[in-house]
Amino acid sequence: AALDRSRYMAGVPAERGGIEGWNVPNISPDAETGIGRWSVNDIASLLAGRGMRAMHVGGPMREVVRNTAQLTEADRVAMGVYLKSLPPRHGEVK
């Protein structure tokens, strides 16, 4: 199946093609269903494996966080800036 570019970063439920049986959450800056209420520092902290949000990371995302925790803080902040710069996309997966 082709990628639906209109859903870029908007997540996908496990039953519709998530990863390894897990939901893929919306990481667009949609305030209701995405990370729109997160600050850049919230995102960088999660990617570093710090804070309350990081405590709730599960499934395949744990491996991502193990790896992004090895990046510099500046790189994690840059990732947060990028995610916040994307157009918000209302998604089904929170």
Helix content: 25-40%
Class from secondary-structure proportions: mainly alpha
DSSP strand content: under 5%
Q: Give the N-to-C terminal Cα separation.
A: 23 Å
The largest pleated sheet is described as:
none
User: Which spans of ≥5 residues are poorly predicted at pLDDT below 50?
Assistant: none
Annotation field: number of helices? 4
Could you explain the architecture of this structure?
It is built from four helices and no strands. It is an all-alpha fold. Helix 1 packs across helix 4. The longest helix is centred in the last third of the chain and has 13 residues. The two termini are 23 Å apart. The model has no long low-confidence stretch (mean pLDDT 88).
Describe the secondary-structure layout.
Layout: H1 40-48, H2 51-55, H3 61-68, H4 73-85
